[in-house]
Amino acid sequence: MLDESYRYVDHINAREGKRCARVADFARHFNGPLRGDVEFIDLQPSHAPSGVRMILLGAISSRSHGEGSTSNPSNPYLRLQNRTWRRPIACEIDQWEVNHEGKGNSRTSKPPLSRVLLLGMLVQTGNAALEEILRKPFDGEGRVSIARTPVFEFISIHQRMPVDPQGSVGGVLPFLECVVAFLSREGGDFVDGHTPSGLRGFPVDSQTRLTEKAAVELHFVRLLSLTPRMPDRFRCHAEAWVYGEGMNMLNGVFKSAFLSNVENLSWGPDAEPAVFLVHPYDRIRVLLYEHATVGYGDVDLLRIPGFWQAEEGIIFEFNLPLVSGSPLFEGKIRLCLRRVPVKFVYSRIRKRWKRAMKRESAYHKAIQRREDQKHNQAFSLCPMM
User: Which pLDDT score is estimated for 221?
Assistant: First the structure.
């Protein structure tokens, strides 16, 4: 569930007969079969949180480990039905064979290890009175206690998305937010060519445009505020990396120059910038170290207005507030961000990677040299010789 700014609100994880959600009575899980369905979930949009504007529907499939494996996923299908109290057995809206696409013509072909199948989304188009939706509203306890209920429209997407099989739901959410933001601008890939009014068709290269990487350059401009600080000394620096990637070979951890003068808290125009290869839905984590405190902040590339629509070279300058675990902490740093050509970035990344490999090689050689010296000092000849 996302709000109007494509931000995460809540999610429902229907797993082993359990529902993990903060909203009561929004989804009901039934184990009884219905026209061939082993189990199904009923969504009640009238109980949706007030900030929810879109509800994404999908599934996660895994690769088979052979015919004799006991950990093989079943061969399920996902079916969406518009079931109401007036039509308990409704017509079928959409059906997706979860493992069907992984079965190719060749026996040696293997599907991806794990992927997300985004079937569609429910978009709120407005709200209506209960008398307009229900001909004879329920009496007693079954009657909904609200005057108006939100109205959602189902939009079929049928989009396949790569995910990290070792990650969790939190790792998929930034990509889903980016997809929804992209669909709201470009339209949707709709089944049978039926496109609702106001939305255009999804271009063929949409998947490539969503997953391709772009090069960004991050400049540390000035430290605006930082408290608490020690009265007798001051020395701080900032670090930046792509959040969630770990120690990637291309996107390492960038360390800025040190600031040691309290009167001059700017890095200067000649300071080396941080260069990263990022997706549109990535975040850049900025961490500030000082003797007395540590603070961090996230640069959400998807939330910067007009950043991905602008041309390369246009500079976006903004203030990033920093947070910390201490209630006395207060910090803010000024950053400068722009897009640069990818081939310009590869040369810098190659130089940075060579420097890192050289430092690592020198470090291992120093360790080996110390171990050899320790071994030679501990070795003594036999007295008889």
Answer: 92
DSSP 58: E
Segment 221-247 shows an average pLDDT of 84
Beta-carbon contacts of residue 149 (< 8 Å; ≥ 6 apart): 45, 46, 127, 128, 130, 133
Question: Do 179 and 236 belong together in one domain?
Answer: no
Domain tally, the chain: 2
Owner of token pair 């000082």:
290
Mean pLDDT of 74-101: 55
Hey, what amino acid is at 10?
A: D
Distance, in Å, from the CA atom of 358 to the CA atom of 381, rounded to the nearest integer, reads 37
Say what the pLDDT of residue 4 is: 80
- Alpha-carbon span 311 to 256, nearest angstrom: 27
Q: Residue 292's pLDDT is what?
A: 83
Q: Indicate whether 33 and 121 sit together in one domain.
A: yes
Collapse the DSSP code of 356 into the 3-class scheme (helix H, G, I; strand E, B; otherwise coil) and give the result. helix
- Residue finishing a domain among 176, 211, 246: 211
What domain range includes position 315?
230-343
The model's confidence at residue 242, banded by pLDDT at 50, 70 and 90, is: confident
The string of DSSP codes covering 240-269 is EEETT--S-SSS--EE---B--TT--B--T
The 8 Å CB, 24+ separation contacts for 356-364 are 356/252
Residue 350, token pair as written in the block:
């190659």
Structure confidence by residue, pLDDT tens digits, 131-176: 666 555 554 444 444 567 787 777 766 666 666 555 555 666 677 7
Q: Pick the closest to residue 275 from 243, 248, 252, 258 (CA basis).
A: 252
Q: pLDDT digits over 327-379, tens only? A: 888 999 999 999 998 887 778 778 877 888 898 899 999 999 999 888 887 77
The residue count for the chain: 385
d(CA 167, CA 246): 12
Give the strand pairing for 274-278 and 27-30.
unpaired
- Helix-then-strand count for the chain, H and E: 4, 15
Does residue 161 sit in the same domain as residue 293? no
- The beta strands (E) that lie in the chain are given as 27-30, 40-43, 54-62, 77-81, 92-97, 114-129, 148-162, 214-227, 236-242, 254-255, 274-278, 283-290, 294-300, 316-322, 330-340
